[in-house]
Amino acid sequence: MEQLFGDNLIIIYFIVGLGIICYSNFNTQQRIMLMYTITYVCCFLNILDSKVALVMMSFLLFIYLEYLTEDYYKLKIIRKIPYKIVDSMFLMIFQYYYVFFICAVLLQTDYARMLIGWRRYGEICKAASFLMAFFCIHETSIQRFETLTITDMMKVINENPVYQFPYNEIEADKYTILTEIEDKSYFDRKNSYNFFSLEFVKYRILRFRTYIKCYHGKEKLKRVINVVEHYAVVTKHIRGYSTIEMQLIRNIGLRTGYNCVIRRKIFEFVYTKIFFSSLKQFFIDNYYNNRSHYKEYLLWLYFRVVKTKINGKAIQPASKAFINDKMESWSKEGIFIVCMGLSGKGNEYYSYSPYYEIIQDNDMDERKITKMYKDIKSQKLQ
Q1: How far is residue 237's CA from residue 306's CA, in Å, rounded to a whole number?
Q2: What's the confidence (pLDDT) of residue 225?
Q3: Residue 223: band (very low, low, confident or very high) from pLDDT cuts 50, 70, 90
Q4: Which pLDDT value is given to residue 2?
Q5: 8 Å CB contact between 36 and 54
Q6: Which of 82, 113, 231, 357 has its CA 20 to 30 A from that of 381?
Q7: How many domains are contained in the chain?
Q8: SS3 381
Q9: What pLDDT shows up at residue 246?
């Protein structure tokens, strides 16, 4: 062994890391925890240089998460290198606490202790480094925030395949009701899936200009202030900034951690782009039927995934609120009730703007809506 590797511990570390990754009796968390432990011990005992160890660790994690993964559909669908880099960075930072591990390794170096004060605080740095490493390993093991694999997400897609989507049989008004209530920018965003995009910004600017163009002078200033106040209030309710795709990805892509709001929002932003862009390209490459109606397909899928609440009754997926799961047979009134229930709004909101205008613009029967809402506990929607 000594003749083969000499003093090249980096090669030995790399081989050990690959051995851990390929050991089938460990799950993903256990493999990463073991890699953390070995790397930290090697750095702590000065067997490996800390910077070199972190570079090697980062490379091994990237290779493992993106190329040696057991996630079949990740290999098949997520093909672009930038997407793979972003995916691995998200998992390492938000699911496996890699930033804490980096800090733990760097804190126990001579350089860090010298900066802080070698004689007075050297032992404190060591203790802090050990505690941070233990915290990282512990949090990785319990997974407070955990995403589903791409394969798990694809199970939902495969249960509702695009080639079975009855695009030609569904009236356009039924899509409009959903987008008017939940995400008015939906069809204006041709190639983006979240609010952090140029298309979304252009849409908001256009709506703002349309809103204020009829006003002048003090009245115009008053309207601008009203808009600013409105968005200040909406900011307190993060749902107001969720596009339909962001709502969909958190329903099909999160295992645990819905209440970890910041991490969940970053997940929604990152994976709406990675997953839905890659899925669209996958449909195109494989010549799936209805691939040219991708935006409509996602709305059809949305009803078959998300939860709604009607007259105090929680229903998931929302399609179960109807007599059957065929969207082409659903009434517009039933779809309106389900869409209002997505944010928990009851019939007391139906007479208010903008919901009343949606009822009028789509030729819905108000009395039918009221009756169907009241009868939901005894019979399903039509």
Answers
A1: 19
A2: 60
A3: low
A4: 45
A5: no
A6: 357
A7: 3
A8: strand
A9: 93
* Claim to verify: residue 52 and residue 186 sit in the same structural domain: no
Whether 304 contacts 131, CB under 8 Å: no
User: Which residues lie below 8 Å from residue 203, measured CB to CB, with a gap of 6+?
Assistant: 185, 188, 189
pLDDT digits (tens, 9 = 90+) for 123-162: 777 888 889 999 999 999 999 999 999 999 999 999 999 9
Query: How much is the pLDDT for 187?
Result: 87
Q: How far apart are CA 209 and CA 213, in angstroms?
A: 6
Q: Tell me, yes or no, whether 297 and 171 share the same domain.
A: yes
- Contact between 298 and 248 under an 8 Å Cβ cutoff? The reply is yes
Average pLDDT of the chain is 83
> Mean pLDDT, to the nearest integer, of 251-260?
93
Give the DSSP letter string of 159-224: HS-GGG--GGGS-HHHHHHHHHHH-TTGGG-SS--SSSSHHHHHHHHHHHHHHHTT--HHHHHHHH
**pLDDT for position 220:** 55
Question: Hey, CA dihedral for 345, 348, 351, 352, is it positive or negative?
Answer: negative
Look at 126 and 201; give whichever has higher pLDDT: 126
Share of the chain above pLDDT 70, in %: 83
- The stretch 87-114 carries a mean pLDDT of 88
- CA gap 160, 150 in Å, rounded: 16
Domain stop point among 110, 143, 176: 143
pLDDT grade for 188, boundaries at 50, 70 and 90: confident
Sole residue written with tokens 């490459």? 285
CA gap 29, 149 in Å, rounded: 13
User: Alpha carbon of 259 to those of 46, 167, 264: distances in Å?
Assistant: 40, 35, 8
User: What domain range is 294 assigned to?
Assistant: 150-304
Axis-axis angle for helices 98-107, 50-66 (nearest 10): 160
Give start and end residues of each alpha helix (H) in the chain: 2-5, 9-22, 28-44, 50-66, 72-77, 81-90, 98-107, 110-116, 118-142, 150-159, 172-182, 198-212, 217-235, 244-253, 261-285, 294-303, 332-341, 355-361, 366-374
For residue 318, the 8-state DSSP code is G
86 with 206, same domain: the answer is no
219 and 83 fall within a common domain: no
CA 304/CA 366 separation, integer angstroms: 25
Q: List the structure tokens of 211.
A: 């809103």
